[in-house]
Amino acid sequence: MEDLWAGLLQSMLLVKVLIEGCFGGKAFQNIRDTEALTGERRNAQAEAILEVTLPMIAYIVVHVRYALSSDPIFFSKDTRSDSQIFYESMLEFFELHKDDMRLQNILAWWTA
User: Fold this and answer.
1) Beta carbons of 9 and 61 less than 8 angstroms apart
2) Whose CB among 10, 32, 95, 102 lies 3.0–4.6 Å from 5's, allowing a Cys bridge?
3) Are 103 and 97 in contact (CB under 8 A)?
4) Residues sharing a CB contact under 8 Å with residue 37, sequence separation 6 or more, in sequence order
5) Per residue of the chain (112 residues), what is the pLDDT tens digit?
6) Cα dihedral sign for 75, 79, 83, 89?
7) How many CB atoms lie within 10 A of CB 63?
8) pTM
9) Closest CA to 13 of 57, 75, 72
10) Is 74 exposed, middle or buried (0-12, 13-18, 19+ CB in 10 A)?
């Protein structure tokens, strides 16, 4: 039987979206060096992000999913969009598997 966890949430496309979206294209290893981020006040600097978390991974995955979809809206104040439902489902999945070593391995891949 195929291991469905193999490679789950481990994609250079996701990493590139994280770097561009949060760090303005700056190399991830420079995140602790606030001098390297001056001139481009990005989300990561504003929030003092020092590591990748599971909710961050879910957020990036939702953005990539939306970019590749034909959904007409990303977010709506009036109704729950597919993106919101997908994000919440990912957080529920993470919570359900929080003690699973495979999920910890995914997080370790992101923070390596």
Assistant:
1) yes
2) 102
3) yes
4) 23, 24, 26, 30, 31, 44, 45
5) 578 888 889 988 888 888 777 666 554 444 444 444 444 444 444 445 667 889 999 989 988 888 888 877 666 666 667 778 889 999 999 999 999 999 999 988 888 7
6) positive
7) 17
8) 0.69
9) 57
10) middle
